[in-house]
Each structure stands twice: as C-alpha cells, then as structure tokens.
Specification:
Elements: H1 7-14, H2 40-56, H3 61-69, H4 88-101, H5 103-124, H6 131-138, E1 143-146, E2 162-166, E3 169-176, E4 187-194, E5 202-209, E6 215-218, E7 233-242, E8 246-251, H7 259-292, H8 307-335, H9 344-370, H10 381-391, H11 398-409
Helix pairs in contact: 2-4, 4-5, 4-7, 5-6, 5-7, 7-8, 7-9, 7-10, 8-9, 9-10, 9-11
Amino acid sequence: MDPTPNATVSQKRSSGGGGSHDASNTSTSLPRPVNPVLTEEMLARFASRAASYDRENRFFEEDFEELRAAKYLMLPLPSEFGGAGMTLAEVCREQRRLAYHAPATALAVNMHLYWVGVAADLWRRGDVSLEWILREAAAGEIFAAGHAETGNDVPVLLSTAKAERVDGGYRFTGRKHFGSLTPVWTRFGLHGMDTSNPSQPKIVHAFMPRDTAGYTIKETWDVLGMRATRSDDTVLENAFVPDRYVARVVPAGAAGIDPFVLAVFAWALMGFGNIYYGLAKRALDLSITAVKSKGSLALSRSMAYHPEVQHAVAEMVIELESIGPHLETVAEDWSNGVDHGAHWPSKIFAAKYRAVEGSWRVVDLGLDVTGGSGIFRSAGYERLIRDARLGRIHPANSFLAHEVVAKTALDISLDEQPRWG
C-alpha cells in the first residue's frame, strides 16, 4: 500500500515548509506554506462572513467564489494540469489556516480537494485511470462526496445503495445523506453495492454528472454545526453513470482497500483532522484574549493570573502540541511515499481520531475559560463549540476508528465479525 510515487520529488516539494508559525498560531511551531495561496486579507473576509452563514444556514457562496478565483480548488492539481501541485501535507497546512478563520468553508471544500488529491497521487504513480478527474478539475468541474448512508457505519467500504450493472455503466439507487457542496457540485462522488453475485459483492465507486437523470436533492440541512456547507440529501432512483465516470469496482469490505480507496481515506480524513485542529487553535486564541481582558473582584489583575485559568490554558496548549505533530507526521509520511503497508488505515484513522477528540477537548475547556461571555453568539465561541462537536461523529467515528486500530494491532482481518456466546 505504498501511497505515492516519486518520493524524491515529493520530499523536495514538501520539505520547504520551514519552521515558521502560522500567523494565527500561538501554540505550535508546525510549518506554514512557503507561498500561501490565501492572503491575510482573504482570511479576514472569510472570518467576517462565517457567523452570518451559520446564522442563516446559508451556503458559503461568496467564500466559494473567492476561493475558486484564487485557484484554491486546484491546490492538489499537478502543475502539468495548471494546478499548484501540492502534496497532502501542503494542502493540509493551507486547510488548517482556512479552518482557523472559517471551519465550515474549509470542511466543504475539503470534499473537492480530496478527490483531486486522490487522482493526483494515483497519476504520479503512473495510474492514469483517473486522469480525467484532473482534466475536468482543471476545466472548473466541482467534485462532491456522497458516502453517508443510514444504517451504514462503515462508509466507503460498504453501502446500502444499490449499484446495478447495465449496458455501458451502472444504475444507482439509494439515499445519500450530507451530500457536500450541494448547490455547486458538478460531479457527485458516490458508491453503491453490486450484489449480482451474492457470494462476492462489489463496491462501485463512480462520479455522477449534475445533468444526470434519476436523482433528487432534498433540502434537509438544518443541523447543529458546520451549517454553511449546505450538505443536503441526494436521492438516487436508477441514476445512470456511464463507465467513463466509474472510478473503481472493488470487493466489498476491507478487501476493497486498494490504492484508490486508501488514498480516499488519507486525503479525506487527514483533511478533516487538520480542519478541526485549525478550529481548535482559533478557540485557544479567543480564550487567551478573553481572559486577558477579563477582570475579577477576587484579583487585582486580570483572570489570566488565576491559577486554575492558567491550568486550563495549559491543558489546551498541551493538547494542541500533541495534535499538530501527529497530523503533520502522518501527512508527511503519505506525501513522501513512506511504506507503512497494511498499517496505513490504522495510522490515518488514529490521526484523525486523535485530532478531533483533542480539538473538542480544547474547545470545551475554552468555554470554561471564557465563561458566560462565550455562550453569546456575538462572541463567536458558541459556533466553534457546535462546529467542533461534529468532528467526533465525522467519519471515521470513534467506534470505527477503534475497531480499525485494534484489529490492525492484533493482526485480525478488518472484515472479521465478532462472535458472541
């Protein structure tokens, strides 16, 4: 499961990150992009719009158009196709900067970025089967993710949607929840199960063009957090996807973790982890600002001098100090072609789990520090609380992450079912 080709090229490209801090970073010394795509002025605009998007449950249209104009959606696209040619590690650094200011915006565009990143990694390895994704991304097509399904706690590897083989392609039937980038996608990444041979079910991964017949978008997105993503449901009713848009047909379950599926895990989950990490760094900075300006009748100075406040801030910083290097190491290993073999899923899932759990703890502690002022929407912290909580249920959730990590460590097949009694 060697993830990327041409490790020497990747190392040269990604080693230039340096040791400087993000402009927003008060707790870690991870590399920031050498030539960041997003200017501080752009980031300030994204931050200024985040609250209204959330309050109105409105798609981040202005952010999206600004990111598209800046060619942010082409970050992983190889330079041969007109993109920035960034590795996973480099894209993650940009995403954490964006998430610091507008986490919902970062989460939504992550869905597009990871499909382009997957295709780019395979292309660099000499697998040109998804070169069409690179060409279409270069032409402005927007790729979305449609994997969430009711009753399916093993997304991507299994599916409740039906994929039926017909002449020239597959027909898909099922309901996809949380379909990212609903208002703007032009290529809907989805998967379904082909059970024509019940003893050997297959998972079919494909991309449905927007002008396809046989699907309906249901406006269901009115949720706890990350509201600006507008991730409505997509109902498939014999929607036909031609073979040219079928990316892979693989065995169901963990047996289907080929380089394509593994790359999906890497790009999607490492992206998620860095987004919630960026959000948590914002929470720390807001908390520090709040306590420095917060007085107390019991103290002659600000609450920053209260020993328990200092304890809580220390806990937040310590948490972030462990999250950042973990994410960076795994993303760099992937980008540099390090061969972790069958341990790659475990490493990816563990890094994402550690990031979202730790980030939630940081944000939760921050509310203790900021106190009553943090519960008002005008302070901005209440939104971070809601957004951060979603990271823990975002795939892969705690249950699946622990199963994958434990079975890998115990050398048990990921497809092995528990036996009771």
